[in-house]
Design brief:
Pseudouridine synthase; 22% helix; alpha+beta
């Protein structure tokens, strides 16, 4: 796939209505405060300056966390933004992610149907944005498939593909942690949220590197597909270099007594 490099991101596809870009890990989608670092939004405004002055607009269809890399789709006109919004309401938007997770899942495919809410609503939480599976939460469903299992000097890990059917905050990360396969590098859900507080206080340290392996959570939006007027628009981008490098560290393996499929619907009371 040919990609055109911009200052902050790569263009992976463009039409008269939509622009698809690959956002790298570490780049914010929107400004969080005045005078902050450049964001994807800033880069898009520069790139689409002509469209903006001739009556177009910039509407980001899917938003990724700062540490999540991958496809972000942008509508360039009011009409395409409305069409994308209607497609999302009709659930005619398909998102596909790749994640590297700790350990070897003992299943090949897994369906998780477990509601999610902000943890601070039902329990004490040191991290305001932390989410959790809870029976009072909003409906959340994700499908998973194990693509590869690896083992390195640091331990066992796996490459997992995820299809979120709903769009809750941190949904994939929460569901993977809930079923015992947290995402590498996840400072909130992998091995206790104290790692997140430590990172905020001291930055990336050797202790965090030993516990989490990566300075960002290993989650990547591999593909986005919109169906508008019965026409499917699909954009993809491969696993980024940092995650591919980690995969190359390991040798292939597989657990014993592998279950082909698991369905998880248990919710804490």
């Amino acid at each position: 796939m040919n990609r055109e490099k911009q200052d902050e991101f790569w263009i992976v596809g463009e039409s008269g209505d939509f622009l698809a870009v690959e956002k790298p890990a570490g780049l914010l989608v929107h400004p969080s405060k005045p005078g902050g670092p450049r964001t994807l939004w800033d880069g898009l405004k520069d790139l689409l300056g002509y469209e903006l002055v001739t009556g177009g607009q910039i509407s980001i269809i899917n938003r990724l966390d700062r540490e999540t890399s991958g496809v972000v789709v942008v509508a360039k006109t009011a009409a395409s933004a409305r069409a994308a919004g209607l497609a999302m309401q009709r659930r005619e938007v398909q998102k596909q992610y790749l994640a590297l997770v700790f350990g070897w899942p003992e299943w090949t495919e897994c369906e998780v149907d477990a509601p999610i809410l902000r943890l601070g609503e039902v329990a004490e939480s040191k991290v305001w944005l932390q989410r959790a599976v809870h029976r009072d939460g909003a409906t959340a469903r994700t499908k998973f498939e194990v693509l590869d299992r690896r083992e390195s000097e640091r331990g066992k890990f796996a490459l997992v593909r995820a299809w979120p059917e709903t769009g809750r905050t941190h949904q994939i990360r929460v569901h993977l942690a809930h079923i015992g396969s947290p995402v590498l590098g996840d400072k909130i859900y992998a091995r206790g949220s104290d790692h997140y507080l430590d990172f905020i206080a001291r930055g990336w340290t050797s202790e965090l590197a030993e516990a989490l392996w990566l300075p960002r959570h290993a989650l990547h939006c591999e593909a986005m597909e919109l169906t508008i007027k019965e026409v499917a628009h699909r954009w993809t981008c491969p696993l980024p270099d940092d995650l591919q490098a980690l995969l190359r560290e390991g040798t292939a393996g597989a657990p014993k007594n592998l279950s082909l499929k698991a369905i998880v619907r248990d919710v804490p009371q």
